[in-house]
TrEMBL record, chains A, B:
Family to which this protein belongs: Belongs to the class IV-like SAM-binding methyltransferase superfamily. RNA methyltransferase TrmH family.
Alphabetical UniProt keywords: Cytoplasm, Methyltransferase, S-adenosyl-L-methionine, Transferase, tRNA processing
Annotated InterPro entries: Alpha/beta_knot_MTases, RNA_MeTrfase_TrmJ/LasT, SpoU_MeTrfase, tRNA_m1G_MTases_N
Name of protein: tRNA (cytidine/uridine-2'-O-)-methyltransferase TrmJ
Subcellular location(s) of the protein: Cytoplasm
Organism: Steroidobacter gossypii
Main enzyme class: transferase
Gene3D superfamilies assigned to the protein according to its UniProt record, in alphabetical order: 1.10.8.590, 3.40.1280.10
Length: 247, 247
């Protein structure tokens, strides 16, 4: 199964071990750690309680982008109250999205640090945000608990006998491809001197949010890249014509 | 909500704290501890992380029976492989049973010790066994993780907007009432000199299993108690007649 768990800035090695154990119980083995404060660590191994193989094969990254570069679906996690601009899904719906996408590409489940959760720069790379429903006034799941609940739902949605969603016709664009698209988009906006009217310079963030929500497949991404290239070419032609006209 | 979590013989105070936190996140506050190895304990408080109120109001018992005496539904927990003689339910189905029963009585979710789980004598007092599905070869959820998954499903089944199962017409018999029934049953079996043909003296265990599975309501329990009393009365009459006949 091409489903990974990505922990961004985990502070407590014990939590990393508990996450490994939670994952393995639900049949997941690919753990990616972005800037772990301490790893490997005896406390992680102790809490893994037999899931040492998950820890041993864990991959450590300096940059979040590298952990999701080859993923066609990136699911972020969040406590409910924040990020009202996102479409929040619950773990059950999330699991169906994951089951569908994992048939044609890699999927990342992304968890932020124990204290702060995911930062905006990381959220901007997620296609969906999942939130675990909690009782109103106390929503403070331990990191490994959140991993357990979400991976439990994924096991239910992917185990033998579970209804299999039809695979998408075309693979989704990967994290890396989406970054290239956004870079391209930003270059074009500069070239056409589009003025950011969002106030706080939030233009690219809004564009990211829109396209992440839409979850582009490879064909759609190629079409958009083609349009951007055409805009650039047209502008260069226009630019050289205009120069000739001026001259 | 009249739903409690019962931990039997918990060995690690950290787990008690983590359980309190998991419960509170899902809106449950009634924690019952049977023979905790260490409680209260600083490690429990540290891991509770804001769910101190659940710890503070926890009730400690010497006997498991006392923790479930007033409960109309007692759900035990188990790793899948054991106890093949039980009808195992999964957390989702369990949650619907709990949502139904909690409308008319108290419900206990019972978790055994970290190392051994529930013992047979405790299992014999459960109406249902719930098991959390796991990936085949590694089924070793941490105690608090198991509480988290099961209480998560209960939150989904009981939160506003969830389909409410119709309440049962008659409350279920409580744990204490069932114990009185079994004691009565056993006395009658002795009085009628019924021979245990189960081999290992498993007769009462089988009878318990049967009636626990059936989940008696108060009326049914009263009927059975009435039948048992009638058998005793009849036998005494027959006995005295037979004595008269002999005399």
């Amino acid at each position: 199964m091409s489903i990974r768990v990505v922990l961004v800035d985990p502070k407590h090695p014990g939590n990393i071990g508990a996450v490994a154990r939670a994952m393995k119980n639900m049949g997941l083995t690919q753990l990616h750690l972005v800037r772990p404060k301490a790893f490997p660590d005896a406390e992680a191994t102790a809490r893994a309680s037999g899931a040492d193989d998950v820890l041993d094969s864990a991959r450590v990254h300096e940059e979040f982008e590298d952990a999701i570069a080859d993923c066609g679906l990136v699911i972020g996690t969040s406590a409910r109250q924040r990020h009202l601009t996102f479409d929040l899904v619950e773990p059950r719906e999330c699991a169906h999205l994951v089951a569908e996408a994992a048939q044609v590409g890699n999927v990342a489940l992304v968890f932020g640090s124990e204290k702060y959760g995911l930062l905006n720069v990381e959220l901007a790379r997620c296609h969906r945000l999942v939130t675990i429903p909690t009782a109103g006034d106390y929503a403070s799941l331990n990191l490994a608990m959140a991993v357990q609940v979400i991976t439990y739902e994924i096991l239910l949605a992917t185990r033998p006998g579970a209804p299999v969603p039809p695979p998408p016709d075309v693979p989704f664009a990967t994290g890396r491809e989406m970054e290239l698209l956004y870079e391209h988009f930003e270059r074009v906006l500069e070239e056409v001197e589009f003025r950011d009217r969002t106030g706080g310079g939030q233009l690219m963030a809004r564009i990211r949010r829109l396209f992440n929500r839409a979850r582009l497949d490879q064909n759609e991404m190629n079409i958009l890249r083609g349009i951007l290239t055409a805009v650039q070419a047209r502008r260069r032609v226009a630019g050289s014509k205009s120069q000739r006209g001026d001259g």
